[in-house]
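Review session, final week

We close the course with one last complete record, chosen because it touches almost every idea we covered. It is Alpha-ketoglutarate-dependent dioxygenase AlkB, a protein from Pseudomonas paralactis with 221 residues. Go through it on your own first, then we will talk.
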Amino acid sequence: MSGPTADLFADDALQQPAGREQIGEESYVLRGYALPWIERLLPELRRVLAQSPFRQMVTPGGFTMSAALSSCGELGWTTDPRGYRYSPLDPRSQQPWPVMPDALRQLAEAAATEAGFSDFLPDACLINRYVPGAKMSLHQDKNERSYSAPVVSVSLGLPAIFLFGGHERSDKTQKVSLFHGDVVVWGGVDRLRFHGVMPIKAGEHPVMGAQRINLTFRTAG
Ligand code: MD3
Ligand code: FE
């Protein structure tokens, strides 16, 4: 981290308990928070992906996204020529998205509470898969009905450099490295900040192989 934002939080960082880093006014990285859950989580994730496999989406502008996507929960995220939206059906199967597994929901709720957001009730879990070279360009998440709930993300597999910007696309970004098992909670005033992911570097993760999977839990409806 560098620049004015780093300076703002430098003192806080020194006073924080190990494993909880504040990266914004209402945003926290919980280092390794998901590690004790991984053995429960991975078989559930496999079941979800067997039912709704990863697919590469095409943006309304005609660009194929490099990260592949799936979802579970009452709502999933889709894109088509008409735009981006949350939908109760997987457009691939025309069936409801897989149910959000208990361990995933419990992990997200526990992490949100840890970051000061109790009563988080996620109804959507987006699952992004990055192979080396895949990235996510700077964007805001604006398709959720309300911005009062936080977003919780769980990083699995290869490391990523997360870019955390401001409220304008042109605002300076800070870089945050995210590793296997890290959980991030974004809420409140940080909820609409621009963010993205730098191209994933080549590598092989001992548990996840040559990929990064990111779960993001949201209250979308
Ligand atoms: C900060 N995914 O799916 S997770 C996304 O690593 C997305 O796959 C990235 O951005 C990934 O939309 C980053 C984190 C994330 C998600 C939503 C946010 C960070 C956020 C909303 C507001 C601020
Ligand atoms: Fe996002």
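Two points worth writing down before the exam:
The radius of gyration is 16 Å.
The first strand starts at residue 20 and ends at 24.
Good luck, everyone.
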